[in-house]
Specification:
14 strands; Pseudouridine synthase; elongated; alpha+beta; 3 domains; ten-stranded mixed sheet; 313 residues
Length: 313
């Protein structure tokens, strides 16, 4: 059953000239602009007893009343999908997403996604956009992902991401041996020829990636990667652009290259690796309720560790 919301507030003369949707969002930051807009459109928000438009400007000293229900913002179906939750409290969930799991339903993936699994785990997440997921990982990228359990947490975390204050670190196994760590700063946008891909393009959006070398193998390297921006496929595009594509990346890896002297067994293992060897290993942000910095770390998954074992031989 949808939660009931009942608010009555007398506005002051200081509110004069403000749009009603902007004013309510400012006064009640625990509610999203999406919800507020729907309340206005349904007539659940009134000003001195009269319905309004989102753009209506208040005169000051009116009575604003809201009698509403928190509607379902996520229409996808709940499913019983195993979730590897590494932390949970009353505000958020931190989980370790496996590879081969799509985060959001879309064309060709209407069911069996992380969103479906989260709704099956906690039905209250239907009242949040994207079931509370505040950022995304590609289908075949594994690792840490944040889900908010209430609206004020969701809005706070989205704001932190927009302000680039959420620290996201990855481990990436790449083809080649960079001489040293570095920083990649380019523009990324839709590929001019292949519309399902991204690319480094002049008129794209700024994308910043920094990286350090963790370990070098014969013709391969394990890198610790930090991203300051969150462009689609950013890490995969950047390292492909630099000439160090991520192992197993069928989209951005180009034609397979192998170092001299590689064994037939290792070549077979690399060829058969089913996904890009990219893992979201660390998250750091300010907890919306406690205002304390929190940090979460996880190690590499089994499939990447097994591949590294072959590289060491």
């Amino acid at each position: 059953m949808a939660a009931k919301i009942s608010i009555s507030k007398k506005l002051s003369s200081n509110h004069s000239g403000l749009r009603i949707d902007v004013l309510i969002a400012k006064e009640y930051p625990q509610y999203s602009r999406t919800h507020i807009k729907r309340w206005i459109e349904k007539g659940w928000l009134t000003l001195d007893g009269n319905t309004v438009r989102p753009s209506t400007k208040v005169k000051g000293n009116e009575i604003v009343k809201i009698k509403a229900e928190k509607e379902e913002l996520t229409k996808d179906s709940p499913e019983k999908i195993p979730l590897d939750i590494i932390f949970e409290d009353k505000d958020l969930i931190i989980l370790d997403k496996p590879s081969n799991l799509v985060v959001h339903p879309g064309a060709g993936n209407k069911t069996g996604t992380l969103v479906n699994g989260l709704l099956g785990y906690n039905e209250d997440l239907v009242s949040l956009p994207r079931a509370g997921i505040v950022h995304r990982l590609d289908k075949n990228t594994s690792g840490l992902l944040i889900t908010a359990k209430n609206e004020i947490t969701y809005l706070d975390l989205v704001k932190q991401i927009q302000q680039r204050s959420v620290i996201k670190k990855y481990l990436a196994l790449v083809v080649g041996e960079p001489i040293s760590g570095g920083r990649i700063n380019t523009n990324i946008g839709r590929h001019p020829k292949f519309r399902t891909k991204q690319a480094v393009v002049e008129k794209g959006k700024e994308a910043i990636t920094s990286y350090k070398i963790v370990k070098k193998y014969k013709g391969y390297s394990l890198l610790k990667v930090s991203i300051l921006t969150g462009r689609t496929h950013q890490i995969r595009v950047h390292f492909s652009h630099m000439g160090y594509p991520i192992v197993g990346d069928k989209t951005y890896g180009g034609k397979s290259k192998y170092p001299k002297g590689i064994s037939a067994l290792l070549r077979e293992k690399i060829d058969q690796f089913p996904r890009q060897a990219l893992h979201a290993s660390e998250l750091e942000f300010i907890h919306p309720r406690t205002k304390q910095k929190v940090n979460f770390k996880i190690s590499l998954p089994k499939d990447i560790l097994e591949l590294i074992t072959f590289l060491k031989r």
